[in-house]
Amino acid sequence: MNLKPVSYVLRIGHRPERDQRVTTHVGLSSRALGASGMYLAADDQKVSDSICDVAQRFGGDYFCENNVKWKSFIRKFKADGGKVVHLTMYGLRLQDAIPDIRKEEKVLVVVGAEKVPGEMYELADYNVAVANQPHSEISALALFLDHLYEGRELELSFDNPDIEVIPTKVGKTTIKHGQPHE
Ligand code: SAM
Q1: How far is CA 148 from the centre of its chain?
Q2: Is residue 1 part of a domain?
Q3: Has residue 158 been placed in a domain?
Q4: How many domains does the chain have?
Q5: Which atom of ligand 1 is the closest one to the Cα of 141?
Q6: 126 burial class (0-12, 13-18, 19+ CB within 10 angstroms)?
Q7: Is position 155 within any domain?
Q8: In angstroms, rounded to a whole number, what is the distance separating the alpha carbons of residues 162 and 87?
Q9: Protein residues with CB under 6 Å of any ligand 1 atom
Q10: CATH code assigned at 121
């Protein structure tokens, strides 16, 4: 199934000493919910590798690119025809903005960690709030993607997994395909 618009995540403000777990979950949540890859605007190969490792074992083409220069990357993404959605509690209401965003071809969803630089609000095509209340980049991203794809992302299948989870009423059932990665 091809979800439209194609979405990517840009993680800014990542601090290796304290954000590794949350940034990893930003990547894994966005992968599970239909995004195609994550760009990390920090040099943290460990986080990037751990997301890639899960993506490889559970299938699909999700990628994580380390050490992206966020301002020049955003400018290039826009010059190539993409639109930039910055998730912020100060933005327009998700439910008001989402109909226009769904019409775009490809979107870059930007989430922060520490205080987001003021420039980000100007660079964004859409500043969007998932409720105008403070919470988390993981919950904001998950709800944004679910509204963007209207639940269709839950029907996604992931190609060539090493491990596949079989939905089970009680307990855990998995199928192991092929050889595990080294
Ligand atoms: N205090 C920071 C600031 O003022 O920029 C934000 C910190 S918050 C823990 C980290 C990220 O979560 C934000 O940069 C934003 O991407 C996301 N976030 C938090 N609440 C949000 C909301 N209500 N709507 C959309 N995104 C939100």
Answers
A1: 12
A2: no
A3: yes
A4: 1
A5: 26
A6: buried
A7: yes
A8: 33
A9: 87-89, 111-113, 115-116, 129-131, 133-137, 140
A10: 3.40.1280.10
**pLDDT tens sequence across 118-149:** 999 999 999 999 999 999 999 999 999 999 99
Please give the single-letter amino acid code of residue 39: Y
- Per DSSP, helices labelled H in 33-181 are 45-58, 70-79, 94-102, 118-123, 137-149
Sign, CA dihedral 177-53-22-145, equals negative
Range of the domain at 100: 6-181
Atom number of ligand 1 nearest to Cα 128: 25
> Is there a contact between 109 and 125 (Cβ–Cβ < 8 Å)?
no
Q: Which atom of ligand 1 is nearest to the CA of 144?
A: 25
Structure tokens at 175: 């199928």
Which tokens hold the place of 73?
A: 């990357």
pLDDT digits 0-9 by tens, 64-122: 999 999 999 999 999 999 999 999 999 999 999 999 999 999 999 999 998 999 999 99
Q: Report the DSSP beta bridge partners of residue 92.
A: 128
Residue type, 159: D
98 belongs to a structural domain: yes
